[in-house]
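Researcher: I'd like a candidate sequence for this fold, 358 residues long. If you have to choose between options at a position, lean toward the conservative one.
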């Protein structure tokens, strides 16, 4: 029993060791992030355009005020046209990914902590961003922070043949994160506690040692195509070693220009986790030598809805308060403009007397 306790403690300590840093990743802190490329036209109206909350609430598309008693802070309602824009973005991304061979998976959003920890995210401690359900009713169950967790968990203790790989999956889910921030530019819908996201995930072999690097590049190329097609002004960052987090060997972030407050805002990331997650979750394949070895996993954001909505609205405003949507979204939105709602769901006055059950 004493020996088993030591083994369990050793495993717990080993699980805290981060992934190996890719030899090409920049070494250092945030200031060492390397700008790989920039594309798109920079807005010249910094500080002159309206922020997404100001224009969205006035036009009747968005509600972020007076939500504290309903959901708590850092929450939002997308109304009418903005709800349609959310669906348009999701469906546009899914169509693009389907053509690239991704299989669509509908994932659970309540997960066991072992799965979340196996993906490299802490479920305990003061700095955890993981929401936990009521332990008395649901044991140790947690809410998923990204569909990457459920997709990785799907392959727990699985063994693949070499012919099974690569596997490319995509999922649409609500992401639940107990994040906090006091930064002015991250207020509104930029950093919220739950939001919709389209995720990419792949499982590859490691016969040549280049498969996961190639998959990561494929994800970056797909992100580039998506954001260029939306007409965004973006830059791609090769993230420095102190910005990788525990599971990533190498990570690239895409940021887009947010002109209302004049800052670069992250809209996606793509990470090569090599065998970090597969070792913890027991996902293996038989290599050419007929030996079991661990697969590599790669994940990336295709569409983080609130931040793309924010970027589209801030960069495409018209003088009359409407927003001209990117052309690729017109068939999905069934229109080209976000227009001011004639009768908004925001027009009611807030009652001075809260409702109580008699």
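Model: Candidate sequence:
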């Amino acid at each position: 029993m004493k020996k088993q306790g030591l083994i369990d403690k050793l495993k717990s300590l080993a699980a805290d060791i981060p992934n190996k840093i890719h030899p090409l990743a920049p070494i250092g802190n945030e200031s060492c992030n390397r700008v790989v490329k920039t594309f798109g036209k920079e807005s010249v109206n910094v500080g002159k355009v309206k922020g997404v909350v100001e224009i969205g609430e006035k036009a009747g598309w968005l509600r972020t005020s007076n939500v504290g008693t309903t959901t708590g802070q850092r929450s939002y309602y997308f109304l009418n046209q903005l709800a349609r824009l959310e669906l348009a973005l999701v469906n546009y991304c899914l169509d693009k990914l389907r053509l690239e061979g991704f299989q669509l998976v509908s994932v659970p959003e309540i997960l066991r902590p072992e799965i979340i920890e196996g993906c490299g995210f802490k479920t305990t401690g003061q700095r955890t961003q993981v929401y936990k359900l009521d332990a008395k009713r649901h044991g140790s169950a947690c809410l998923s922070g990204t569909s990457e967790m459920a997709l990785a968990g799907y392959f727990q203790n699985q063994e693949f043949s070499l012919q099974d790989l690569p596997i490319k999956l995509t999922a649409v889910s609500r992401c639940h994160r107990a994040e906090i921030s006091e930064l002015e530019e991250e207020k509104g819908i930029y950093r919220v506690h739950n939001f919709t996201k389209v995720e990419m995930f792949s499982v590859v072999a490691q016969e040549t040692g280049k498969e996961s690097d190639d998959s990561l590049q494929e994800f970056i190329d797909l992100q580039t195509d998506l954001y260029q097609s939306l007409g965004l002004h973006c830059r791609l960052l090769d993230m420095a070693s102190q910005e990788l987090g525990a599971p990533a060997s190498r990570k690239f972030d895409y940021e887009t220009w947010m002109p209302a407050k004049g800052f670069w805002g992250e809209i996606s990331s793509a990470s090569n986790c090599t065998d970090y997650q597969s070792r913890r979750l027991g996902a293996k394949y038989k290599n050419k030598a007929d030996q079991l070895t661990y697969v590599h996993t790669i994940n990336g954001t295709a569409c983080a809805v609130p931040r793309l909505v924010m970027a589209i609205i801030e960069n495409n405003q018209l003088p009359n308060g409407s927003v001209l949507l990117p052309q690729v979204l017109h068939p999905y939105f069934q229109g080209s403009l976000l227009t001011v709602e004639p009768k908004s769901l925001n027009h009611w006055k807030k009652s001075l007397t809260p409702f109580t059950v008699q």
